[in-house]
Amino acid sequence: MAINILMVFFALYFIASFSALGFGLLFLLKEMFPEQDAFVIANNYLFYWIIGDLLMRFFLQKLPVMSVKPLLTLPIKRSTVVNFVLGKSALSFFNFLPLFAIIPFSIMLISDGYETSIILTWLFTMIIVVLITNFLNFIIEAFSAESELSFLPILGVVGTLFALNFFNILSMTSLIGGAFLAIASNPILILIPIAILVACYVFNFKTLIKKLYLDSSLKSKVTEVNAADLSWTKRFGDIAPFMQLDLKLIWRNKRTKSMAMLLLVGVLYGLFFYPQEIYREMTFMSAFIGIFSTGFFLINFGQFIPAWDSGYYKLLMSQNIKYEQYLRSKFILMVISVVLLFVLGIPYVYFGYKILIAHFAAAIYNIGVNTHVILWGGSFNRKKIELDKKAAFNYQGTGAVQWLIGIPLMLVPMGLFGLINWLIGFGAAIVFLIILGVAGIVFHKRLMKGITKKYLDSKYKMINAFSQDS
Amino acid sequence: MIYTKDLTKTYNGTTVLNIEELTIPKGQSFGLVGNNGAGKTTYFSLLLDLIRPTTGSITSNSVVVSESEDWKPFTSSFIDESFLIGYLTPEEYFYFIGELRGQNKADVDNLTSKFEDFFNGEIIGKKKYLRDLSKGNQKKAGIVAALIGNPEVIILDEPFANLDPTTQIRLKQIIKNLAEKQGVTVLVSSHDLTHVTDVCERIVVLEKGNVVKDLETNPTTLKELEAHFGSSAIVQEEEE
Lengths: 470, 240
Hints:
The structure holds 2 protein chains of 2 kinds.
Chain A: H1 2-32, H2 38-60, H3 78-90, H4 93-96, H5 99-111, H6 116-146, H7 152-166, H8 172-185, H9 191-211, H10 240-252, H11 254-268, H12 277-281, H13 283-294, H14 296-302, H15 313-318, H16 323-344, H17 353-378, H18 400-404, H19 406-423, H20 426-442, H21 444-457, H22 459-466
Chain B: E1 2-11, E2 14-24, E3 29-33, H1 40-47, E4 55-60, E5 63-64, E6 75-78, H2 90-100, H3 105-113, H4 116-119, H5 135-145, E7 153-157, H6 165-182, E8 185-190, H7 193-199, E9 202-207, E10 210-216, H8 221-231
Parallel strand pairs in B: 3-8, 3-9, 6-7, 7-8
Antiparallel strand pairs in B: 1-2, 1-4, 4-5, 9-10
Helix pairs in contact in B: 2-3
């Protein structure tokens, strides 16, 4: 349920943003380019819109081809099945979203005095172009599936177009813009985009009808094993098997892999803030950024312990394992990530030594307090995660726990740091964070004992919850 | 060895398992048969402390399974694919289980090499993740993993399902060998009456959670079981 609510929330957010863009764009353009025609400017930017749309779709939209498996054995013609798949893709959210921008923009243009017939033709052309992008994306994806480096075709297409435009070899912006304007003033030309759309559709139809067999496009992918030498984990003694398992878990599953990539975001997080003078003066901000940036992996990985292992939780529970070792392996991984992120973040000293000190205190706090807090919070997880599901926009496993845990994790240290910083001073606030962190490290054994007990107490509930289909 | 007393499991007022008393001696090959929803998997889950009994208890080697974890070192099991770790290769999975059970790589290699016939060249050295193997091959890997670490009690739920005929015959030999020669207590459940009668010294029939038959296997057992299930054209319940 929580997943659906979140998805609806995101959808509404995008709809709102696009509508705002649609209504506001005319004013914006008039303000920025007072002496030029807003409609012409808008058309010149369409090139970037189309390129962006194509990129977005490539990463997020897939042809719903798997859903037709049950249809294959029914007495339905193959061509009907293919038409059904392609038709279904035309009803995707990605095709409706642009309408929320295009239609308000058209209304604004008409009310601004543009000729209705021109704008309506333009609107209609836009809808056709959205559908062309839709089907073009599937053609690109079909080629991607055959090549080794699956990003290459899309980067090739987008890169070439972009380069042509950027180096003024072929001005794509004015070409596309000009084409739209020409169609708008000469409606008969709309037959050209319609022809392109039909061509894209037919191409998709032809490729798909050849592939609609269990051993081609409907085959589930078999991935090659990537084995790395993990013998260095041996130095961690009895938790080594679990650490190896955790590392393989992270590296061999789509969702966890993209989460590991977030380490990079953690490192770069400070760059959103520190270059701006205003944030550098708010010293308490650096504590917040420090906790967030050094704890980026800790938060993203930790919040779904033990749900990452939900697929084989029964196995773990029936095996001769020490729960404490299982949890300590996750603890060590999180500590390593915090240290790593802190070290990688040292260059932030460029923006002032205080930032480095604050990050250091935050890292100690993360190691001593937040690791334990997030492990403790994990014992309330009752939502399973299917590791083989897609990575982007996947909120499986997200429940109330993930929202509530943020309070002790982020808000409490920030609030306390801000308060002491304001009452006594920066130094005292730093010392305070470090003391809390060190206290956590000193009492690590005892804290882990309590946390382990919490997990043991919820054993049956977790096993039951993790074996439910969500 | 395994002693069950007054064991019941109730979900929302429906009793799915009710065993007054059941003793399984050491080294017995024990078969559990019954239709869907008879309580076979529930019993095995209780035996592994994966669900909590409503009343009663199971004692394994004088350890009450729901109170202590000391039964774990000598017990192993393969219930369903949720006992496999999909993103490991079979070898990695065997080594992982081995480490949990105090076996080093050489021990594990030594054990798995005995099952080359059983694997039929489709498991070891294939560089494939368990999640990408066929159902039958997944099952083979899971069953062999349950033999790692010299367990004294082995629990296999529906081990014959999804296996090809050759593998079924080999598995029967493996199970017989375990019980007769190594003194391992093997608990097996199955829908296939022929297989169970071939393998097990004793067969217990469950029906709607109750023990309705407790047979010592002899040449007429199969006939008796077939007669029992043939006559009882009862409405089947969906398995949970």
